[in-house]
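Summarise what follows for lecture notes:
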Amino acid sequence: MNSPITRRDALVILGMGSLAGCALPGLKGKANAPRPLRVLAYNIRHGEGLDGVVDLARQAEVINAAKPDLVALQEIDVKTGRTGGVDQLTVLAELTGMEHRFGKFMDYDGGEYGLGVLSRFPILAHRVIELPAGKQEPRVALLVRTRPPGWSVDASVVSVHLDWLREDRERFAQAQVLESALRDEPGVVIPAGDFNDVPGSRTIEFLRSKFSEARKPEDARLSIPAEDPKREIDYVFWCGPEGSVASAESWVIAEALASDHRPVMAVLTPEMDQ
């Protein structure tokens, strides 16, 4: 797949904005040559592509091609009737060779529905963050903490899927609760996923005021609908101790079939003097 991955990974990543919130003390000590952390955010629509076929192997190929360290997944079925009783997160973990954790929104069609995280590194801890319920569905966020090789602080990816209704009252309330829940989380914290709102909305601008954003280039920022994207609603944000992350960039991968969302790839480059 010809995507921005190979073209942009070769670039020197520039700083993408100052840390606005979640400030913590500076790093202590040294570590061996920390490498950039690759984070993928992907709404997989319970494995269903735009051709109407549920194909987890196809989505695993998209994930593997991006070579992520951490993956924040949304819209996952676990043993539901509509997707044949398959534990989708376990299957994706097996196909990608990664550890996994699941966060349930609700029981659905004989199984469970929610979001998940895949990690290439050993998972040290995880927790489900309860969010205000939307009018259509309950909502949670899922935090998974790990220690990237060479980093002197932990990194936690937080899979996020906010309310989708046009009226934003629940979505904005969910963003506020999420920020409050993450405010004292140690290390580098990376909320990533489907935020169901666009730049300029009060939800996204609130999050930009509290977190730094892994900013996208103008030509690779729209993520939905996958076949001909018109809107930017999938993001990767971050916050952490002063001196932990030198820069962060992200871009939308040009994948137009495997889901109704295109995935977002982010690279967080650590300070080299950790």
About this structure: Residues 1-21, 23-31 have pLDDT under 50 and may be disordered. The longest strand covers residues 99-108.
